[in-house]
Amino acid sequence: MSHTMDKKAAFGQGVIIFVYLAILTILEFFVAVTFKSVSILIVVAVIKAALVVYYYMHVYKLNNDDGSDENSYKYKTGTNRIGLWLFLLSDAFVFAGLLVMRANLLGLTHPHQLDQNLGLAVTAVLLVSSFFMNRGETAMSYGDVKGFMNNTLITFVLGLGFFLGVVLVEWRLAAHEGLTASFGNPAVGPMGGVFYMMTGMHAFHVLTGLIFLGVVWNNARKGLYTAEKHWGVEAAAVYWHFVDLVWIFFYPALYLIGKAV
Amino acid sequence: MKRFFSSALSLGLLWQFLGTLLGAGLVTGIRALMGLSITDTFFFTEPAWVMGGFTGAIAFLFGSGAVSDWMKWARGIDTPDHHEDHHTGWEKYVNVSLDHKVIGIQYTIVALLLISIGGLFALIFRTELAWSELQFLTVDIKLFGQNGPQLYNTLMSLHGMIMIVSILLGIAGIINYAVPLLLGAMDMAFPRLNAFSFWVSVPAAVLLLMSLFLGGFDTGWTGYPPLSVRAPVGMQMFFLGVFVAGWSSILGALNVIATVLRMRAKGMNAMRMPIFVWAAIATSLIALTATQLIGLSFQLVMFQRLFGMGFFDAAKGGNPVLFQHLFWFYSHPAVYVFILPGLGVISELLPVFARKPLFGYRWIAMSSLGIALVGFVVWAHHMFTSGMNEYLRVPFMYSTLLVAIPTGVKFFSWVATLWKGKITTPTPMLFVLGGIIVFLLGGLSGPPNATVSTDLHLHDTYFIVGHFHDTIFGGFVFPFFAAIYYWFPKATGRRMSETLGKWHFWLMTPSFFVLTFGMMYIGLIGMRRRIVDFDPALGIDTAHMILTIAGYLIGVSVLVFFYNFFNSIKNGEKAEGNVWNSRSPEWQVPSPMPAHNYEQPFEVVGEPYDYGLEGSQYVKFISPAKSGHK
Questions:
Q1: Domain contains B441
Q2: ipTM value of the model?
Q3: Are residues B514 and B619 in the same domain?
Q4: Consecutive sets of 10 residues in chain A, 261 residues long: mean pLDDT of each?
Q5: Which of A5, B160, B469, B575 is 20 to 30 A from B307, comparing alpha carbons?
Q6: Which among B58, B254, B598 is the top mutation candidate for probing chain A, defined by the most A β-carbons within 10 Å of its own β-carbon?
Q7: In this structure, are residues A86 and B252 in contact, taking their beta carbons and an 8 Å threshold?
Q8: How many domains, chain B?
Q9: Between chains, do A104 and B303 touch, taking CB under 8 Å as contact?
Q10: In angstroms, what CA-CA distances link B293 with A57, A203, B173, B286?
């Protein structure tokens, strides 16, 4: 692993990106409650996504063919990276399909039963978890196993918090407010179905991400990763950021865009 | 026999059975605790069957050992990059192997098996249609919880999806076998993922077939709501089967793209790749991305049935046409997934048997990508009569007609390649030529369906069925057989009988013309798709009879092929050299191919298809001493 900057600068970059993302998220929230402008929300989401894809998911690493030997770990990691990104591309089509469904069925409305504060809170939790994931991966790339494990543990706890916040708290509150998916409630329309389907599909990915984090954390504990060889860590981190990336679009789509009905 | 019962296949199926019981039992138990009903027509309730089908498929993967290396990695245990197969002979093919050649053959065998099942279904319902009025699938028949006409619907619907899955497995078979050999790679980029992609298709096929026994379903392969929301529990097994088969397709495609990007031989730049590799890339790009949408659309109907989410229920404010958009976003490009590898096989084999350079290599390579990309924006031509917004019709009509351009490029190249060639016609070449002609008919019968004004009349008639079978036989079935006859000596060291191969071709091709022309003819007269019976007043009884006979003749020709295939494995004429006098690297080494492919790596030094040009060379083998062990 060659480094273009030292460890401190790498951590610093993670902090700066996090601050940008946090400011944009708050901006998003205020745009939604004041202007109600869909185009601004889309632009903000795209900027956030670009920041995550470049600085947290390191998409540029896909293009690092330096002619190393085909049997080397480095070359194989390059191949693995292509495989992972192709998988994410494929997975993105599921989420894009869900967004298309949401646009078609709900248009410029969103469910009024959702708790805006809770929505912002879980979004913040996931964003912070992404920050710690980045910190953990950066630590690993400098060979700091201890730092990786601590940061990943925080990521894991925050991720679990997000998962429980959506599935246990938000689902229960929404159902209590009358947003249900089930039979015999025609007043809800397709809104309940769309909400549970989108959050459910995302929560499923959060869950698999948590398992992935658990696996690499455990393998790091066994001392299987080094500064040069830690593809498992990189894959888990990129996957975790991808889960965050999806939420960058799902959060405005479910909570912010359009009128609450 | 004992070794068969302890194989990965048998263990996987056993685990799938137990896993299904476990999942279904679990849901039944929970339902019992919640005070809900615990049994239904087919013993378990629908949610129990869905859970059971899902856990069964996962159990299969664990039981067969397809995921055991990954489980080791997760626990931090390293495994060697390549396992040596410790099985020999047929046992290699019923156990988990990481060798792409074994996996390719496994895919091909399962594809052939599914083709025969799907074909059998077709013959059953074709027989029912031989005359007007019901013959043997009458309302008095009761089988698997269905009466005769319902069984007709199930068989007709399953024929569609089983054939689609068999095609996906068939192209995966050829691609898996041929692509690493053509690239000079030792294996695919991700051998375990490759094995996984194959093994996950087995429980998928089981799930699809289970739907037949659980009340079937009557929607056709498209599964449109609202009908699919009301169909029996078999519908859910169908959805699950397609969903799981989709994973096979997606992950297989991922592997192909990564392999082509990373594992090409030295000197093989993009414009010196074999044309079949271009086709494989184009097809994989579609399969990788669009497949998710059929999975999603079926999943949404599945959830609508289970939880009453009203996505496609107009009464609840949902939109049934949305399903069609999501569904066709995959299912139209899917036909390009089926045909692009076949067209690639045609372009790959044509110069070998015409002994001339392939005409317009760059154009033909780009045309595959062109078809794939245009294919993403044509889906709504299936929906001209669906009640979607009318202003969408014309753009989708034009985008559909646009597909004719890259396809025309291919035809132009093929004709120009044949022009003044020294053509020989062994069996693979017969199938290549047959494929070109049949696909031409499929292509020419396409524009009437793409044009809104004529489609409004042709929609849902047998004309569409005839057109579709023309494109798929020309684009997949003929090239698939050509590829099997062509690469069979490479895989086994023996060749298939030429005499029987010619019988196969000359029985199948004329029968097939009769079948599809007949289909188009009765369609124009007014025969609708998917119906169990037709009005005798249409005056097409004789035509239907002829169609049915032609259908049976195709069945006989495929039996000839099967006999030839299995007999030649043991008794075929020995063929260890370059039987077709090809320039392709895999034919420059003796057959059958050794386990890790090329003992000497090669370097690409020229153009791939310069047949008949003095002094031209495509690949040059590098001496092992210089390069070391690969």
A1: yes
A2: 0.94
A3: no
A4: 76 95 94 87 96 95 79 91 97 97 92 92 96 96 95 97 95 88 65 92 97 97 94 96 97 92 82
A5: B160
A6: B254
A7: no
A8: 3
A9: no
A10: 25, 19, 23, 11
